[in-house]
Amino acid sequence: MEEKRIYNCHTHTFTIDHVPNEFGKKLLPFLYRIFTMKFIKWYYKNFTSRGSERYKKWRHQFKTIRYGFIDILKWTIILQWVNVIVFIIIRWVFSILTNFFRVDFLFSKTTQEAIKRFRTLGRYSLYKEQSKIFDLLEKTYEPGTRFVVLSMDMDYMGAGKAVKPYLEQLNELKIMKVNNKDSILPFLFLDPRRLKATKELSGNDNYEIHAKELLSNMKFDGIKLYPALGYYPFDKELMSMYEFAQENQIPIISHCIAGTVYYRGTKQKEWDNHPILKYTRKKDEPQIPIPLPQTSNYRFTTNFTHPLNYHCLLNKDLLKEYIGYELDLSNLKICIAHFGGEEEWAKYMADSWNNYNKNINHECKEDYLKKNNTLTHGNQRTIWWNASWLSIIYDLMVTYENVYADVSFILFNQELFPMLKYLLEDEKVKNKILFGTDYYVVSQKNTEKELYHNLRGYLGKELFDLISHDNPKNFLSTKMKQY
After folding, report:
1. What is the pLDDT of residues 216-271, one digit of tens each?
2. What is the DSSP string of 267-310?
3. If residue 148 lies in a helix (H) or strand (E), which one and from where to where?
4. What's the mean pLDDT in 14-31?
5. Domains of the chain in sequence order
6. pTM (2 decimals)?
7. Where would I find the H helices in 101-165?
8. Which residues pair with 401 in a beta bridge?
9. CA 214 from chain center: how many Å?
10. CA 101/CA 103 separation, integer angstroms
11. Cα(89)–Cα(78) distance, rounded to whole angstroms?
């Protein structure tokens, strides 16, 4: 049987030089000015065996002395047993002390995840160029595999400056595509603040003009959004690019999971209420905006990432009320990345009481849409706060023709595989699920090889081909190029 070409629809190759220097802000109180990206890079370059030949030699000399000393002790049985006993006691005491003085309880789950992210960035900090990271990724898969590489514009996240600003990252990706025409599909990043800041400029200095030129000439293959960095996916500055993308069937991948990469600045007053979604306190009272009272960055930035925002974008009536004119973006081709995340899948599985978290089933689309589910629930506030993101994304995929989801960052948890398989047997959404691994970000959880082979082995050839070949080809095809 002929092997189908694999498409990994969610990967990254940005280096530590593309990450703002004070990335630890809001994550490591009082320490983020010390543990900067420059510090982490310096540490891995000078104090790891892979980064420093001098350190590697020192480690080798230390081990030589240590094992030489152990060999001397082996001259007599008594000294040898003394060495074994002393070593066991030292390990035992050290184990007791480290458990007694554990400090991880001092840090939130978010901070612990951030520390893992720092380690990941550190391990890859020795690669100065994106092409080196891409080479590492490519060698993990069969020859001929294609990779969607998503750029990251972190210049506006309020965490200081990166060594290399976003536009340099973009130029590197452009060169990488020239050198790897058949294997790399780079996506450029859209941040409404960059669009607004360059709106009055001309030529390629105007980012919207530049982005449209790169996409039209197929130098880039799609668009990446990351609302957690401080904006809603229905931001008015994005509308022109959305019209262009819809007209040309250009794919968009948008981040949809709670994580450690988010806006580091101060919450703005206008973010205290949702700009579009409303609810009624009592029957006869007028509708008011949904309140968003969170204050910590990790909490309030999930408001930007919430999947219900895509209903606001794709439903022309909701969008019109916000932007002030009629614009139908219901055919926008958009992938909601990470499928909401592991915790939201667990929330769906755990909630046995509410109908909006029991909506996933195999009935036909026509019958399904006749019922009240998450998007058609009467109280938008209830859905916003209580519905699992998995439930909302599922409804978005059923309701809108071109809404997809990828499985990146949920692959490391094999307990989710049965639910994924159930979704892949659902005729309503089976053709809208994409394979992606979030390389190299997800390496803090599992290696790329583990993620790829574990999923492939569980799903079997037919279902894996569906999400890694058939569905990606449909998602990635544009008016300019068919896959």
Report:
1. 999 999 999 999 999 999 999 999 999 999 999 999 999 999 988 999 999 999 99
2. PPGGGGEEEEEEE-SSTTSPPEEEE----SHHHHTHHHH-THHH
3. strand 146-150
4. 85
5. 7-26+110-476 (3.20.20.140), 40-106 (no CATH)
6. 0.89
7. 109-124, 130-138
8. none
9. 23
10. 6
11. 16
